[in-house]
């Protein structure tokens, strides 16, 4: 007896809003919402550009960029373990961004690229009879769910199960999705969008535009300025109100931002390898790695003997390896600068960070 | 880039209701059912109306600008402590960092950590206009931030506008694959 239950209705996950080329395409999901769009040069902006040519330059560049936006909600961030600031700090690796990107790509189905051309006759003939007939319906722009073998089942659930099994078989053999119109999947496969979204050639702001955009160069300066303003305001408050018990604040005399290191000498924020155990150890004591890296770069080599300190000083002069050791709970964090020759033979510093458990005596 | 982010910045666990009252930590109490409700909704907290929730406290959920370079704003609101009645647990910040700092997000680099750092610093600077002591902002530690929502924008260089438009259309078809027949 056929089921009389009402089919569930729900909005389509993929939809586009806006006219023609100016539209924004959305893909809604409970964990990661995604968008694809082009930047509208007429959209209002709060930016202050030095002149119209610079503004035009930036917007001209923006118009040639296809923007894929993936919005990770709490569930996605928790599953990817990307809910803390430390988890997003690079430390010489793009792993966190790669994880987020991979999760979005999977939701988009980029790991399931269908074929662009019709299967050959002999490939279709190799399928089971019902699968073959359903595929032929799809290729003729008919709905394969209307095949007699499907509707012979009494309930909607049984029909769906049968159809799903056939869909899997056809996909495994021919990479054709029985649940999507053939023309659409073929056009998408031929469009180059898979190759584009799977490529690692993402746009990077060119150096000549960096000062007008959100880049490391501009944000380093902004961060520094904010910290200074906070220090000044705090000190003013302490003095004016006569607050007792709080010291007057000072920013470090030595700038220790990443761009202030003399990379030729000792430390690099990009040439770095960090063993995963390091983050486990530091997370337990809630200490970010960059604090230890700063200390190492400044010459505070941690919990080592006087002899080791003197040996480190001498090693620095010779460009020999230098090692710092810091305690983090039951672990030692070992930071080591070694020198490696680049393609031109120049010795450049490379940072290796590892963790070792302190044995119980 | 991280376009819009939403983070929760909790107070240090050692901070009590008494501290918050003394420091005049700002937040806004709204009527139940209005847009200005707190995250947990209005309760009959002893704090509301008599302590830090006093009508005399600064109104929160307001917009802030940075350095006057941009006229953009961002949203901040308090969340009640999970267990201690009348105590503010921390602040929720929703912000589009590129727009609030350089004024646009047309072309940009990617850095979630830097976006969070700037958001927290901007909040702290704003709080200093309200609180009675810098100890109040010392109780907010960036390493305690819980990131709850992140928009990452990957820009692909298509060389020409026409090619970019073609890719946008192809992306549209790609998402329609998810709709099925």
Biggest sheet layout of chain B: 4 strands, antiparallel
How are the strands of the largest sheet of chain B arranged?
A: 2-3-1-4
Rg estimate of chain B, integer Å: 20 Å
The neighbouring-strand order within the major sheet of chain A is: 1-2-3-4
Beta-strand fraction estimate of chain A: 5-15%
Q: Termini distance of chain B? A: 35 Å
- H-E string of chain A: EEEHEHHHHHHHHHHEHHHEEE
Q: Provide mean pLDDT of chain A, rounded.
A: 85
Question: So what's the overall shape of chain B?
Answer: elongated
- Based on DSSP secondary structure assignment, what is the total number of beta strands of chain A? 8
Element-by-element helix/strand order of chain B: EHEEHHHEH
- Secondary-structure-based class of chain B equals alpha+beta
SSE order and pairing:
The complex is a heterodimer of chains A (361) and B (181).
Chain A lengths: L13 E4 L6 E4 L4 E6 L14 H12 L1 E8 L1 H7 L4 H4 L6 H14 L12 H5 L3 H11 L8 H4 L4 H19 L7 H10 L1 H6 L17 H26 L30 E3 L1 H9 L4 H10 L7 H13 L3 E7 L2 E11 L5 E11 L4
Parallel strand pairs in A: 5-8
Antiparallel strand pairs in A: 1-2, 2-3, 3-4, 6-7, 7-8
Helix pairs in contact in A: 6-8
Chain B lengths: L1 E9 L6 H7 L51 E6 L7 E9 H5 L10 H16 L7 H4 L7 E12 L3 H16 L5
Antiparallel strand pairs in B: 1-3, 1-4, 2-3
């Amino acid at each position: 007896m056929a089921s009389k239950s009402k089919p569930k209705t729900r909005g389509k996950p993929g939809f586009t809003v806006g006219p023609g080329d100016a539209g924004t395409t959305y893909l809604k999901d409970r964990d990661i919402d995604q968008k694809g769009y082009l930047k509208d040069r007429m959209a209002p902006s709060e930016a202050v550009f030095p002149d119209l040519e610079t503004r035009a330059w930036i917007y001209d560049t923006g118009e040639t960029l296809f923007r894929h936006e993936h919005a990770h909600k709490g569930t996605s961030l928790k599953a990817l373990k990307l809910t803390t600031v430390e988890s997003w700090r690079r430390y010489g690796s793009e792993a966190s961004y790669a994880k987020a990107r991979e999760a979005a790509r999977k939701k988009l189905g980029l790991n399931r690229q269908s074929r662009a051309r019709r299967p050959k006759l002999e490939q279709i003939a190799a399928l089971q009879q019902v699968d073959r007939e359903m595929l032929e319906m799809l290729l003729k722009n008919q709905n394969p769910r209307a095949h007699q073998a499907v509707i012979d089942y009494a309930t909607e659930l049984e029909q769906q199960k049968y159809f799903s099994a056939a869909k899997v078989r056809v996909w495994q053999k021919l990479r054709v999705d029985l649940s999507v119109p053939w023309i659409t999947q073929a056009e998408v496969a031929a469009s180059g969008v898979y190759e584009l979204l799977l490529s690692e050639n993402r746009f990077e702001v060119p150096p000549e535009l960096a000062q007008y955009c959100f880049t490391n160069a501009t944000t380093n300066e902004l961060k520094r300025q904010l910290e200074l303003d906070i220090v000044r305001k705090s000190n003013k408050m302490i003095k004016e109100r006569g607050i007792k018990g709080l010291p007057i604040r000072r920013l470090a005399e030595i700038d220790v931002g990443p761009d202030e290191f003399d990379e030729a000498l000792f430390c690099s924020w990009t040439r770095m390898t960090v063993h995963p155990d390091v983050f486990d150890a530091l997370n337990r004591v809630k200490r970010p790695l960059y604090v230890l890296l700063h200390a190492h770069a400044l010459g505070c080599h941690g919990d080592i003997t006087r002899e080791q300190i003197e040996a480190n000083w001498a090693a620095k002069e010779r460009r020999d390896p230098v090692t710092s050791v810091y305690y983090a709970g039951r672990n030692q964090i070992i930071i080591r600068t070694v020198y490696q020759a680049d393609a031109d033979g120049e010795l450049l510093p490379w940072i290796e960070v590892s963790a070792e458990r302190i044995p119980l005596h | 880039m991280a376009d819009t982010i939403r983070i929760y910045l909790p107070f240090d666990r050692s901070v009590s209701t008494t501290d918050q009252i003394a420091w005049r930590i700002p937040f806004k109490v709204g009527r139940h059912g209005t847009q200005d409700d707190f995250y947990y909704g209005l309760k009959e907290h002893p704090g509301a109306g008599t302590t830090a929730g006093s009508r005399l406290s600064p109104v929160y959920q307001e917009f802030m600008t940075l350095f006057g370079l941009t006229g953009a704003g961002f949203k901040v609101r308090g969340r009640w402590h999970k267990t201690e009645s009348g105590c503010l647990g921390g602040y929720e910040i929703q912000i589009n960092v590129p727009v609030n700092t350089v004024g646009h997000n047309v072309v940009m680099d990617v850095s979630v950590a830097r976006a969070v750092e700037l958001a927290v610093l901007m909040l702290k600077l704003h709080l200093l206009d309200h609180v009675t002591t810098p100890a109040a902002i010392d109780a907010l530690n960036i390493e305690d931030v819980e990131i709850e929502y992140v928009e990452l924008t990957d820009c692909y260089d298509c060389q020409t506008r026409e090619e970019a438009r073609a890719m946008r259309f192809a992306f549209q078809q790609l998402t329609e694959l998810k709709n099925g027949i």
